[in-house]
Specification:
Layout (H helix, E strand, L loop, with lengths): L1 H21 L3 H4 L5 E7 L2 H9 L7 E7 L2 E10 L12 E4 L14 E5 L9 H11 L7 E8 L2 E10 L3 H8 L1 E2 L2 E2 L4 E5 L17 H6 E3 L7 H17 L2 H9 L4 H13 L15 E5 L6 E5 L21 H7 L2 H19 L2 H17 L8 H30 L14
Parallel strand pairs: 1-6
Antiparallel strand pairs: 1-2, 2-3, 3-4, 4-5, 5-7, 6-7, 8-9, 10-11, 10-12, 12-13
Length: 416
C-alpha cells in the first residue's frame, strides 16, 4: 500500500506539472520582458541540407521544445529576403505542416528572425512594440536563444506569425464571431519592379503578383483580388472632392495615415513609402467588409537616422500623395507625429536600454552573427542616441510645417 501511495503521489505530481505547462499561453511565449530559449531537434543531415539550400523553401521535420514542453513533427524552413543565410538561417516554424490540426498555445506557426540585418539586435522588437503602443496592428515579438540539437545557434527575434490567429487577437469578436475570416495578404516586393500604387489595368494578374493571399485561398480570383484592383483604380482616378468618400469605403484612411506617421517616426526607409517603392507590410480586408487596413511587418531597417525627413517620399506614392492632399488627413498626419514624439519621449530610450541589457550575454555569445561584438556595441550606442534626438527633431519640424511655435532648442530651419 505504501508503494501504491507513492505511485499515486508521483502520478499526481506529473499531472499537476502537465496542467501547469498546458496553462502557459502565447502571451508568455511572446513575453517581451523574457529572453526565451527554444530548442529545435532534427536530423543533423536535414539541418545541413537546410543551411546548404537556404535560398529554397524546403520544409524539414523537427521537434520544438519550449519551457519544458515539446511539440513533435513540426515543419521548419529557411525564410527571409535579404536576410537569408546559410550560416545563421532565418526560420519559419509550422506546427501544422504535417498534421493540419496541430497547434501550440493556440499558434499554428511562428518566425525566428536571424537579426542578420540589424547589428543592434533590437530594431525589429522595439519598433513593433512602439507600433502596438501607438495602436497599429503589429505582431508580438521578443528575443530567444535558439539551440539546434543542443548546440547554441544564436540570438533570434521570436516573431508572431501574421495569420488568422493574430487577426482574431487584434480585431477581436463581434458576439461569438471572431473577426479573423477576412482576406489577408502579404505584400510581395517584386525585385526590379518597384510599385507606388499606380493603376496597372483591369487584369488581376498584376495584383496577384504583388498581394500574396494567405487566407480564403480557394475563393475566386475576382473575389480575392477584385476589390484590390478596384481600390487602386479609385485611388488613381478619384477627384479630391470625392476621394475620402469613394476610397474610404475600401480603405480605412485614418488608420492608414496613422500607420504612415508612426512608420516615418521610427525612420523606416524600406516600408510603405520605401526607397524602392512599397515594401514590408500585410494588408487585411476585414471580415464581412470591403475595407482594408495595413498591418506592420519587418522593421529591421527602421531607426535609420534621427533627422529622417518627416515628409520623406509623401509625394512619391500615389495613395499617400492623394490622401495627404486632403487637409483633414494632412493635419492628422502631423498630429500623430507629435503624438508619437510624446509617447517616445518617456518610453523609447528606456525600452531600447532594457532590451539591449536583456540580450547582451546572448548577443556576445552568438558566434554566427555576421558582425562583430564591437560592431554591435557601436550599433547599440547609435540606437540609444536615436530616441531623444528623434523626439527633438520631429517636434521642431512639425512646428515649422504647421506654423506653431518652435520648441526651445530647435536649430534654425531652412526657411529662416
Amino acid at each position: 500500500m505504501k508503494w501504491l501511495g507513492r505511485c499515486l503521489f508521483v502520478v499526481a505530481v506529473v499531472v499537476c506539472a502537465a496542467g501547469r505547462a498546458s496553462a502557459q499561453s502565447a502571451d508568455e511565449f511572446f513575453n517581451p520582458d523574457a529572453l526565451q530559449r527554444i530548442d529545435l531537434w532534427l536530423n543533423s543531415a536535414d539541418w545541413a541540407k537546410l543551411k546548404a539550400a537556404f535560398q529554397e523553401n524546403t520544409y524539414y521535420p523537427a521537434d520544438v521544445t519550449w519551457n519544458g514542453q515539446t511539440v513533435r513533427n513540426v515543419g521548419i524552413r529557411s525564410r527571409g529576403l535579404g536576410s537569408r543565410s546559410g550560416t545563421k538561417p532565418g526560420l519559419r516554424v509550422d506546427f501544422d505542416k504535417y498534421s493540419t490540426s496541430q497547434t501550440f498555445l493556440g499558434l499554428k506557426s511562428f518566425v525566428l528572425d536571424n537579426l542578420t540585418q540589424d547589428h543592434s539586435g533590437v530594431k525589429e522588437t522595439v519598433a513593433m512594440r512602439f507600433f502596438a503602443r501607438m495602436g497599429i496592428p503589429a505582431p508580438r515579438e521578443t528575443h530567444t536563444r535558439l539551440y539546434v540539437n543542443g548546440i547554441y545557434a544564436g540570438l533570434y527575434a521570436l516573431v508572431e506569425s501574421v495569420d488568422k490567429t493574430m487577426m482574431g487577437r487584434v480585431f477581436g469578436s463581434i458576439g461569438d464571431d471572431v473577426q479573423n475570416d477576412g482576406y489577408l495578404f502579404e505584400y510581395n516586393y517584386v525585385i526590379g519592379s518597384p510599385w507606388r500604387f499606380g493603376y496597372e489595368g483591369a487584369e488581376l494578374a498584376a495584383y496577384k503578383q504583388r498581394f500574396d493571399i494567405k487566407t480564403n485561398e480557394s475563393k475566386s480570383d475576382s473575389t480575392i483580388w477584385g476589390p484590390i484592383e478596384e481600390l487602386v483604380r479609385l485611388v488613381n482616378s478619384t477627384a479630391s472632392a470625392t476621394f475620402e468618400q469613394a476610397v474610404g469605403a475600401s480603405l480605412d484612411l485614418a488608420a492608414f495615415v496613422r500607420y504612415l506617421a508612426v512608420q516615418n517616426f521610427v525612420a523606416q526607409n524600406d516600408g510603405f513609402n520605401g526607397y524602392d517603392g512599397m515594401n514590408n507590410f500585410y494588408f487585411y480586408r476585414l471580415e464581412n467588409s470591403a475595407r482594408h487596413v495595413f498591418i506592420a511587418w519587418d522593421e529591421d531597417n527602421a531607426f535609420l537616422a534621427p533627422d529622417f525627413n518627416i515628409t520623406t517620399r509623401l509625394d512619391d506614392n500615389i495613395l499617400t500623395r492623394n490622401t495627404m492632399q486632403l487637409p483633414a488627413f494632412s493635419s492628422q498626419y502631423f498630429s500623430v507625429m507629435q503624438e508619437a514624439a510624446a509617447s517616445a519621449s518617456d518610453w523609447m530610450q528606456a525600452e531600447m536600454q532594457r532590451q539591449l541589457t536583456m540580450i547582451a550575454p546572448a548577443m556576445q555569445e552568438d558566434t554566427l552573427k555576421p558582425y562583430s561584438n564591437t560592431e554591435h556595441a557601436a550599433a547599440r550606442d547609435t540606437m540609444l542616441a536615436f530616441a531623444p534626438a528623434r523626439v527633438s527633431y520631429v517636434r521642431c519640424e512639425v512646428a515649422t510645417i504647421v506654423g506653431t511655435t518652435r520648441p526651445a532648442g530647435c536649430a534654425a530651419s531652412a526657411g529662416q
